[in-house]
Structures are given as structure tokens and as C-alpha cells.
Amino acid sequence: MRFLSRTAAQWQGSAWCGNAVSKCDVVHFVGTGWDLVGFPLLQAAREQKKLATCWPAVHPRQWGDAPLDIDLYRKMDGVFVQSDYEGKHLREKGVSASVLVRCGCAAPDNYPGDADRFRKEHELGDRKVILFVGRKSNAKGYHALRNAVAELNHAGTPVTLVSIGRDLEPPYPSLPKEVDLDLGAAEDAVKHDALAACDVFALPSEAESFGIVYVEAWAYGKPVICGAAPASQELVNRHRGGISTDGSVGEVKKAIANILATPAEAETLGRSGLNAVCAEYTAERIFERHFEVWNRRVGEQTPLNRAVI
């Protein structure tokens, strides 16, 4: 099956890929082996002696690491990974360490969020706000987070949960209406206002390839709480921008309570995250990282002077 899929893709896409590759110095493929177009692109790059790299955004043991995917990565001149955990996983699958490059994702270029507008519109006043952004599923930690918020309110720590994202696994643990603001699949402008207004961003998920939304929260100087996803724990712990948990109700509840009880520490965590965004996760820095790798692999001392496809 792997052979037939790879061979069919190379045959069907060879003409288009050959023409496209002739106009560039580097082929950079964002995708996996099962996207199939990576194979004819790689073949055209080899025939024309061009550099070929890819960015698969693997979710280890969930997506992007099937045998056909690994076949593609092993033939690439470079594979950009989003965490050391992802890189280690691909090495264990047979991808050479020499082609792996850790490079995170860029945060958006501007941050138009307005905290006052959001709090006034939703009559939040000065209430403590916990923000969740993501698919509302157990895997994203949504059910555990709702239970944690319920327990905090029951124990006398008043907090309001603001949720943004599409419904996936209802029913959800119940919360009193006055502390449960569900905005559904809101537009980006609403998300940015919510990020600006929240006190803590919490996404206690069990699986992430990186966790760009933590970086978005850091851009607003917010402390974050992550779950058991190894890539997210690596990100949060590396930059000391929040608290990593195992995703259980007890740990998420404790993390929220600790951050809210220590405003100075919360500010320190948020500032550490913001510093990380400025140093490593701007679009300019991510572009620089890619071009550093491409120039080194091509063997040039000056910037690439043609196109990257």
C-alpha cells in the first residue's frame, strides 16, 4: 500500500512539480507523507539537485508518524519540528537526527485585544477570568477545566470561565450560569479581546504538536496552564511562562488557585512568556531560523536569491 500510494503520487504530480521546482532554490513542504504531494516534490528536487525540507507538525502516536510519513521524512534534507519531544519521537522512528531542526511557530503580528471592551460588553466587572480557547473535548482538557472551575467556586474562590471554540463532546460538566460564559466559535477579534481581558489562560490538553495559543496568551502577558501534552509542557517549562499539570481536575484547580493567590508571581510568569514571544516567536525570527537552515544546507554564505516553494 505504501509503495502504490507513493508511486501513484509521483507519477500524477511529476510534471507540475518539475515545473514548479525549476523556479526555486528550495522546496519546503508543509505536510506529511499521506498528503502524497510531498513525494513528487521530493523527486523533482532530487532530479534538479535542489534542497528539500518539510514541516509535518507531527502529533506523536496520533497523526503524522505512520510508516508512509516516515518514508518521506527520512528522504528530506531537513525536517522542522516544533519541540524536542517531536524530534525525539521521529528519531526513534528512524529519522536521522542530522536533519531535524527545532523551530516553533510564529505568533500573530499584531494584538488588537481590548480588555475593557470585553469586560464591559459581557458585564464581567473585576471578576477573575479563566479563558479556554480550543475544541471542547476531553482531549483538550475542557471537561476537567469546567470541573476545576466548579470546585473553586464551591470552595469560595469566585472565578468565571470564558470558553471559545466549537462544541465537540457534549454534554459538559455543569457550571452556574453566572460564572459560565460560552462564546462558541468566536471570531479572532473576540478571541483577542478575551485574551487581553483574562487573568489566566488554561488549556490543559493531553495532546498538542506545539500550542500556538499559549504563545498568543503570552503576547498579552498572561500566565498559562497546560496539561499533560509533552510538547506543551516543554514549551511552558522552557520559558517559565506558566504552570504545567497532568490535566487532572485536582492539578488544574490547584494551578488556577496558586496563580490567582500570588499576583506578583502571575505577573512574573506572564512577563517571562512575553519575553519568549519577543525573542523567539515573532514572524521575523521564525523566518530567520528557516533561512539559516536553508542557507547552511545549500552551502551559501549569502541569502537565497530566488524563490522557496
From TrEMBL:
<dbReference type="InterPro" id="IPR050194">
    <property type="entry name" value="Glycosyltransferase_grp1"/>
</dbReference>
<keyword id="KW-0328">Glycosyltransferase</keyword>
<feature type="domain" description="Glycosyl transferase family 1">
    <location>
        <begin position="116"/>
        <end position="272"/>
    </location>
</feature>
<protein>
    <submittedName>
        <fullName>Glycosyl transferase, group 1</fullName>
        <ecNumber>2.4.-.-</ecNumber>
    </submittedName>
</protein>
<dbReference type="Pfam" id="PF00534">
    <property type="entry name" value="Glycos_transf_1"/>
</dbReference>
<keyword id="KW-0808">Transferase</keyword>
<dbReference type="GO" id="GO:0016758">
    <property type="term" value="F:hexosyltransferase activity"/>
</dbReference>
<dbReference type="InterPro" id="IPR001296">
    <property type="entry name" value="Glyco_trans_1"/>
</dbReference>
